[in-house]
Amino acid sequence: MRRQANGRQRQSRFERGDDLVVMKFGGTSVEDTAAIRRLIGIVQSRLGAQPVVVVSALARVTDQLLEAGSAAAQGHLGTALAIVRSAYVRHEQLADSLVDGSAYSALDHELRDEFRDLESLLHDLEVSRALDLKSQDHLLSFGECFSSRLVKEALCQAGINAAHVDARACIVTDARHGQASPVWDVTEQRLQQTVSPLLESRRVPVLGGFIAATYDGVPTTLGRGGSDFSAAIVGAALCASRVEIWSDVDGVMTADPKLCSDARVIRRMSFDEAAELAHFGAKVLHPSTLAPAMRENIPVYVLNSRRPEGEGTEIVARAKGGNVVSAITAKRTVAAVEIESTQGVDSELLRAVYAAFYRHSCAVDLMATSLRHISLLVGSTAALPLIAADLRGVADVRWENHKALVCLVGENIRRQPEVASRIFAAVADMDVRVVCQAASDRTITFLVEESKVDESVQRLHGIFFSQPEPARDWGGISSAFCQAG
Ligand code: ASP
Ligand code: MG
């Protein structure tokens, strides 16, 4: 029985739900023989619980598939085939080094069949001369199909009773290709029907992350980096006791370590803080990952597969006290849009503006209004000329490129006025533009020129993280994480 975030209790169909751990391994954690051997060791260390394994495609494979797809759609079939053949050789070599005997022959057969289908898709793309999002999802789904089959056999070879589960048969989404969302009820039902019997017979299910299908079985994907989201979906559907995201970083960091050499791992943070960080550009988790975990109140751990003994970051429901600022992140290539109407801003204008941005699928990050202006931030300017044309006669639309949004995240950041004054004193000599701390209690964000973003993050990190990490009061919440093995 699990207590949900809303206090309701939910019974898992899988009776040992309390011991269930979903382990997601990212591309670099399955990139070569050594990485897959480390994965095997980590899964072995969790056999005291009941693991479910979710894997990304091997590092770089998704990008290669995209490259092959666009080459084929431009008529360069030879280039496209050469790219996927090199990926095929890489998978074959891994299979050869990790799996023996008849299991190897069976795997070899499966990989060969899948690659044949992939090649035939590339032929189709060459003929149609178009790579739309629907074909792109089909194309990209091969990466996780290959990796999940490979990892399943490698686990079996190591004596673990693994079973391959086709994620496309279990995770059902809408048809928004490229960035599909799960249809929750059907997904939950299918995952329970498929995965629970395997768990009951003590098998270790292995699924490809990122990939799913519509109700009618058309392949979809959950957006780049979507394997994290898959793991959270599986965890929520099966009432897991934790979700582990295994990657090649030590955890969620206080800032990008490439920018701040003294950035450190955040030991514990709240779901909300982590969700804000993912939303504002931190690369460590797919932004949708936290929602299912939050709803079912499942702790999420971000761990390093190269250093499995590390503590990583624990992401749980509530955090109190501790450092006021948990982390600093930045979203680059932001454009600032100004919409001006001489008639003034009213609900009519807002409706027209929303409709225009929606029509052209242009995601809006932040919004502020004044008497005659609406200020927006967007990640891409591609649709802005069309939006400006739609609004002609109603409002003038202008925009400026090369901005970046700096974001400070912390549970109570907004309740401490001195934090904002320290922040703005630190960047007083920079051209700081839109300042917005109203939207969320947990963030303070501001806009700077892209050329100034590194310096502002470094200065702020220096100010807020020069002291060692203070202890946090976790309001009686204890860690559900036990380092097994
Ligand atoms: N392979 C996919 C990507 O590269 C999904 C993932 O790795 O999470 O985006
Ligand atoms: Mg990722």
Summarize the structure.
The protein is α/β, with parallel strands linked by helices and 485 residues long. The chain is 39% helix and 22% strand. It has an eight-stranded mixed β-sheet, sandwiched between helices.
Describe this structure in words.
The chain has 14 helices and 21 strands. It is α/β, with parallel strands linked by helices and 485 residues long. The strands form five sheets. It has an eight-stranded mixed sheet, with helices on both faces. A six-stranded antiparallel sheet has the order 16-17-15-18-20-19. Helix 3 (77-98) runs antiparallel to helix 4 and helix 3 runs parallel beside helix 5 (133-157). The longest helix is centred in the N-terminal third of the chain and has 28 residues, at 101-128. It starts with a strand and ends in a 12-residue tail after the last strand. The model is unreliable at 11-17 and 473-485 (pLDDT under 50). Aspartic acid binds next to loops. Magnesium ion is lined by residues 26, 225, 228.
With helices defined by DSSP (H or I, 4 residues minimum), what is the helix count? 14
The global form is globular
Amount of beta strand: 15-25%
Main sheet makeup: 8 strands, mixed
pLDDT below 50 for ≥5 consecutive residues: which ranges?
A: 11-17, 473-485
The hetero compounds bound to this protein are: aspartic acid, magnesium ion
Q: Give the distance, in angstroms, between the N- and C-terminal Cα atoms.
A: 26 Å
**Count of β-strands:** 21
Estimate the helix proportion, in percent. Answer: 25-40%
User: Which structural class is indicated by helix and strand composition?
Assistant: alpha/beta
Average pLDDT level: 90
Strand arrangement, major sheet: 5-7-4-3-10-12-13-11
Give the quaternary arrangement of the chains. Answer: single chain
Rg computed from alpha carbons, rounded to a whole number of angstroms: 24 Å
